[in-house]
Design a protein that fits this description.
The complex is a heterodimer. Chain A has ten helices and ten strands. By secondary structure, chain A is an alpha/beta fold. Chain A is globular, with a radius of gyration of 18 Å. By secondary structure, chain B is mostly helical. The chains are: A alpha/beta, B mainly alpha. Chains A and B meet through α8 and α10 of A and α1 and α4 of B.
Amino acid sequence: MSESAIITTNNVNLWYNEKRALESVSMKIPKNKVTALIGPSGCGKSTLLRCFNRLNDLIDHVKITGEITLDDKNIQESGTDVVLLRKKVGMVFQKPNPFPKSIYENVAYGPRVHGVKDKAELDKIVEQSLRHAAIWDEVKDRLNDSALGLSGGQQQRLCIARTLAVEPEVILMDEPCSALDPIATAKIENLIDLLKKDYTVIIVTHNMQQAARVSDYTGFMYLGKLIECGKTNQIFEHPHEELTENYITGRFG
Amino acid sequence: MTEKFHAELKSLKSETLEMAHLGRFMLRTAVDALIRQDNDLAASVVARKEEIHTLEVRLEEHCYQLIALNQPMAKDMRVIACTLKVITASLRIGRYGKVIANIAKKISDQPHIANLMTIPHMADLVIEMIDDAIEAYEKDSIDAISDFSARDDTIDSLRQSIFREGITYMMEDPKSITRCTNYILVARYLERCADHACKIAENVHYMNTGERIEIH
């Protein structure tokens, strides 16, 4: 990859107890690009994604070796401020998970935790984040309504707005459309395309057509190993590895 | 579902092979009709025009349906892309067969000049190229098409030599103009058929390797 890398993994291994979930994963995530991770269930793609904001720390008996750098700093080091790391590397999950609060409060929550007190400043952040997440026009007249009253697709875009509100550099998305209908999915996909102007997006998806549509780079994982990583058009047109070929043509997985 | 898709892909390929063989057969038979001055044989080629057109429409439709319903990727996508090119090339080869058959009928009332010059030899070489291209498509192999560039050069040289030879006969005897002009046209059509064989070869190469090549 010729683009500058924002995240680099070097020989990363991960064990859940005795079970090895990642094996010698080395890859570069280019800045301001969308990178998709694909592979059959249990191949380690979500595990790898969670390495990028150290979310695996929350799971017992996890052991990680190797190096993961964000902006050339090793995030595995013990002195890493994990809260700051998760501010820089935001995450959107499979199922929309808004707080049981108002739309406004969902977005304002993060900046407030990070010390923004000024109401006008918060208003500005909320509006900008909702605009960036392409949901402002749909919610601007009901910011004080409960977020739980929104549709699934709107809730997911609200969660993206909530992530954007703390000004991350990287956004991790773990199957962000799997609970959404095709129209809501299309909106999220369009949004991903817009987001890469300002952010780096890493998306885990089971939907290969989605990976092909939204990403610039694709990594194919199998049994904890990164089998192949390259430009999306190369991976889907003529992958170098037979395993990748067999997976994306549906011959296994 | 992927098993069903792969079975359909296989059947698409075998139907396309049938069409490719029909196009090749029309060309071979047309040249034979020209050589033997056999009007019935020529008419039998012209009669298959509709059949090859119908196949083209049906198979293209099949390709589009497979794309729309399965969003194929990697080799599956390349097989369909290549198949679309094989369909077009086969139709063109068949159509040139029909045009040569019409020429055969038109000039069958007079003896050939110089035993058709090198047209029969050129036709043999072109048909060998078509056979090899079809075989490469059928067997997913690029062995038989590795020397296509040199073979295409030979075909181009033969067309030029037929053109020059035809001109000399026409200059010697204006009564030969109709026949020689038609020979030159036939040589041109055969050269185009070799180009279509090259097109198939280029696409078979892409289908198997994912890399584009150009055969000049």
